[in-house]
Amino acid sequence: MKILVIDGQGGRLGRKLTESIRKSCPAAFITAVGTNSIATSAMMNSDCADRLATGENAVIVACRTADIIVGPLGIATADALMGEISPAMANAVSSSPAYRVLIPMNLCSTYVAGVSGNSATILEDAIKHIRTICEKEDHDRKE
Fold first, then answer.
1. Domain 2-142 indexed as CATH 3.40.50
2. Which of 35, 45, 57, 136 is the 20 to 30 A CA-CA neighbour of 84?
């Protein structure tokens, strides 16, 4: 299972995601792509990603081969994350054949209805869903 984690700004969410995914799906191949070098560095410090990259082209290329794309909701929205998500990046995420697990955040002039302020619960739910997908893939592969 190839999992792509995309994050920007300070990379804190991406770091938490890579750490949690590695614990929940140890066999997964994790690629972490930061929209900027600070985000990539934060994900690198988790020491949980198999590959790391930075920038627009890295997002576009990685979206082509990922089975699952994980990140904040803004990665599928042009000009999100204070402008770090280019239209090309958002298009790559949105048009990828990968399954997307997007973490809702009420930031950058966007309100996601129904999302409480408890980001820990949202992150746990996302990781639980990713684990279910990985387990199903492992089960299907064994049959």
1. yes
2. 45
Q: Is 110 within 8 Å of 72 (Cβ atoms)?
A: no
User: What angle separates helix 119-142 from helix 12-24, to the nearest 10 degrees?
Assistant: 40
User: Which residues does 37 contact at the CB level (< 8 Å), separation at least 6?
Assistant: 54
Q: Which two tokens stand for residue 110?
A: 């966007």
Q: Give the C-alpha distances (Å, rounded to integers) separating 129 from 35, 57, 70.
A: 24, 28, 11
pLDDT in tens, 60-108: 999 999 999 999 999 999 998 889 999 999 999 999 999 999 998 766 6
- Domain residue ranges in the chain: 2-142
| Beta-strand pair 99-103/29-34 | unpaired
